[in-house]
Design goal:
Elements lengths: L19 H19 L6 H14 L3 H15 L6
């Protein structure tokens, strides 16, 4: 399978991410980074944590909250036990 940067299908399991769940977390993290950079703020852990907290505060979806919590663990350098 070849990587196509223009093909965006979150259902695909990417070989370097370990599966579609982790791909979704990477996608969410990328969206957060893009929003921070487009707003003109500096990109660092603090701004990522603030953005994640804001997203968690407004989120009602349990699955999405799980993804955000996994991103917290990633930023803290802790891997979630699977």
């Amino acid at each position: 399978m070849r990587y196509d940067p223009f093909h965006n299908n979150s259902e695909d399991a990417l070989p370097w991410t370990g599966g579609s769940l982790q791909a979704k977390q990477h996608e969410l993290l990328g969206t957060l980074v893009q929003e921070i950079l487009c707003s003109g703020k500096l990109l660092n852990r603090k701004t990522l944590f603030v953005a994640l907290i804001a997203r968690l505060d407004q989120c009602d979806d349990v699955i999405l909250k799980t993804h955000y919590e996994a991103i917290f663990s990633l930023l803290l350098g802790r891997l979630a036990a699977e």
